[in-house]
Design a protein that fits this description.
The protein has 655 residues and is α+β, with helices and mostly antiparallel strands. It is built from 22 helices and 26 strands. Helices cover 42% and strands 19% of the residues. A hairpin with a 2-residue loop joins strand 14 and strand 15. The chain starts with a helix and ends with a strand. It binds 5'-O-[(L-methionyl)-sulphamoyl]adenosine. The site of 5'-O-[(L-methionyl)-sulphamoyl]adenosine has 19 residues, from strand 1, helix 2, helix 8 and strand 12.
């Protein structure tokens, strides 16, 4: 792309929140990022110069605490977790243009420069922060979340009143200016209910914000005062300007920032719609064009949480149902601003009805008829009767709806509109009965029908490309349409543009129907529901051993403390993991049958006990050099790893 043609195109800057690296990615992270991907792809197809950013939030208390619990440094934790996010975006087909980590140098420099600028202009000042503090958790607890008798809501220990030096951001000064901005920019916060919520919050006033900590080490140092690190939210929000060149590339900043759009979850709108725009106003920069707050997913009616064990793993969903159906479901099932409930049954239902029945069938039937009645070649347009005119008008409406709905974040409505068009296609087949026309030799009536069906499919593929990009490519391949240099585009699209003569290539079914009865049985078995066959007695281990052994037999087994560095899947093995463990004096590979009981994230970083002098053995083609110790309940339903109860150097002998 030359500089001048980039100039001609309008810029569109889109961001997701940056995700904390103390946890593995879940459906909530996937949701925002997929929505941002759809919007980015659509904007690119309609001629925008898009800059799509996502990334990770790597500083702060949470990250430091998780790292300590795992016995690693915060940066090691971030380095490990960021891989999961990047891998998930690949698996989901996310087309981001940049990925920012808040530990990167470009970001730390930007945060420090902004801090310094605001300090120099008097919008940051030093004061004292006073509040209830939990010493073991190293955190201030707001009065609203304190437990009974001033205890910590997390560890339940008594809180102490603490006072510490802190830098404050003069947020109160800019409230009126922000209210004025919101009065003039009604789409600055969306949906409308969130806009109203933010405006009424602002009218209640905003206090100056404490933006530094002395009780924490894991953060960006305050410039010129190493006793303080910058508070994680002040640091994190700045990522949005770091990545588009605020400090290092003013031209890029001038191009993309005025077109800034942030997608966020409803829980973090005060940071995004109060603090962040105030920071920008203080810097003399315009607030973002739009912050859109989406709703939250529950899972089969319940709040998603680790303790309930119902966290939806997007990797697993893609594995089981495919990435396009997962993307489609998340955006079709609920309006983007509302809360929604995730269930695999609803996902399977949509695959069968919308994707297999409506879309898959339309393609299948059309190509079959082009094969049968037109020698596999698309006929030219021919004459256009009232039905064809009606469909042409609907095509125009569908295009306009897609533009309006996607641009206002109403992804579900855009999809509904596209499905009205697809269903019209199926109904058109029933109305015109091309097989009858063929039998009666009415070629002049038959060929325009086939042509119109082909047009419906090629427009549908274009409109669906942002949502289900792989499927769009597959449809286009079957329609005999090649790749477009520079990517698919809706610019210059015209109904009836197919000259005719292309050879279609009927291929594999787009979405095989899911046999819901078999699916349900498989799901119940997977979740341990339904009839559980009684455990075979010979598989149970004896509860107690009567036999004794000599101490020397025990001593001949060399047991040592090790740490799990990496956990890898072994293709086609349901039970085994390949573990890389660190014994302090060497690293080695162990193959272990614990996959059914632990996720890789639960294992990574764990200190364990390993038998180090076992003869090497090959399991599923991988050589194992040792064995880890775990306690089982004898029925193979529960397993617990043996871990040292306090810190001890790796390689220490267990006796
Ligand atoms: N690091 C901050 C964001 C900083 S942006 C400058 C953060 N990270 S997070 O990883 O905890 O959450 C990221 C996003 O996931 C939030 O937008 C949040 O709303 C979203 N979700 C978390 N759980 C969710 C659901 N159950 N459903 C939908 N989205 C959810 O906050």
């Amino acid at each position: 792309m030359s500089a001048s043609s980039q100039e001609q195109r309008k810029a569109f800057y889109l961001t997701t929140p940056i995700y904390y690296v103390n946890d593995i990615p879940h459906i909530g992270h996937a949701y925002t990022t997929i929505a941002a991907d759809v919007l980015s792809r659509y904007k690119r197809m309609t001629g925008y110069d898009v800059f799509f950013l996502t990334g990770t939030d790597e500083h702060g208390q949470k990250i430091q605490q998780t790292a300590v619990a795992k016995g690693i440094t915060p940066l090691e934790l971030a380095d490990r977790t960021v891989v999961n996010f990047k891998e998930l975006w690949k698996v989901l087909g996310i087309s981001n243009d940049d990925f920012i980590r808040t530990t990167e140098d470009r970001h730390c420099r930007t945060v420090q420069a902004i801090f310094k600028k605001l300090l120099d202009q008097g919008d940051i000042y030093k004061g004292a922060y006073e509040g209830w503090y939990c010493v073991p958790c190293e955190t201030y607890v707001p009065e609203s979340s304190m437990g009974e008798e001033k205890t910590c809501p997390d560890c339940r220990r008594p809180l102490q009143m603490m006072k510490e030096e802190s830098y404050f951001f003069r947020a109160s000064k800019y409230v009126d200016q922000l209210l004025e901005y919101y009065e003039k920019n009604l789409r600055a916060v969306m949906p409308k209910s969130r806009y109203n919520e933010i405006v009424s919050f602002l009218k209640g006033g905003v206090r100056d914000q404490s933006i530094s900590r002395t009780t924490l080490k894991w953060g960006i140092p305050v410039p010129g005062d190493d006793a303080h690190v910058v508070y994680v939210w002040f640091d994190a929000l700045i990522n949005y300007v770091t990545a588009c060149g605020y400090l290092d590339d003013r031209e890029k900043f001038a191009r993309y920032w005025p077109a800034a759009h942030h997608l966020v979850g409803k829980d973090i709108i005060r940071f995004h719609c109060v603090i962040w725009p105030i920071m920008l106003l203080a810097l003399g920069v315009n607030p973002p064009v739009t912050v859109f707050a989406h709703g939250w997913w529950t899972v089969e009616g319940e709040k998603m949480s680790k303790s309930t064990g119902n966290v939806v793993d997007p990797f697993e969903m893609v594995d089981r149902y495919g990435r396009d159906p997962f993307r489609y479901f998340l955006l079709r099932e609920v309006p983007f601003g509302n809360d929604g409930d995730f269930s695999e049954a609803a996902l399977a239902g949509r695959i069968n009805s919308d994707l297999a029945n409506d879309l898959g069938n339309l393609l299948n039937r059309t190509l079959q008829m082009i094969d049968n009645f037109s020698g596999g070649r698309v006929p030219g347009a021919g004459r256009s009767g009232p039905l064809e005119k009606e469909i042409e008008a609907l095509a125009g409406k569908t295009l306009a709806d897609a533009e309006e709905k996607i641009s206002s974040f109403a992804f579900d409505e855009a999809l509904k509109s596209i499905w009205v068009f697809i269903s019209r296609g199926n109904r058109y087949i029933d109305e015109t009965m091309p097989w009858k026309l063929a039998k009666e030799g009415k070629t002049e009536e038959l060929l325009p029908v086939l042509h119109t069906l082909y047009e419906i499919l090629s427009l549908s593929a274009l409109l669906l490309a942002p949502f289900i990009p792989d499927t769009a490519v597959r449809i286009r391949e079957q329609l005999g349409l090649g790749e477009e240099p520079g990517g698919l585009s809706l610019l210059g699209y015209k109904w009836g543009q197919t000259a005719g003569g292309q050879k279609v290539r009927k291929g594999a079914v787009l979405f095989p129907r899911i046999d819901l009865e078999a699916w349900k049985k498989e799901k119940d078995a997977r979740e341990g529901r339904g009839k559980v066959p009684p455990a075979a007695p010979q598989e149970e281990e004896p509860l107690l051993h009567e036999e004794t052994v000599e101490i020397d037999s025990f001593r001949s087994v060399e047991l040592r403390v090790a740490q799990i560095l990496e956990v890898q899947e072994i293709p086609r093995s349901k039970k085994l993991y390949k573990l890389t463990v660190d014994l302090g004096y060497e690293k080695r590979t162990i193959v272990s049958g614990i996959k059914e009981f632990f996720t890789p994230e639960e294992l990574t970083g764990k200190k364990i006990v390993v038998v180090v002098n076992l003869k090497p053995a090959k399991l599923c083609g991988v050589e194992s050099n040792g064995m880890l110790l775990a306690a089982g309940d004898g029925k193979k339903t529960a397993l617990s790893l043996l871990t040292p109860d306090r810190d001890i150097p790796l390689g220490s002998r267990v006796s």
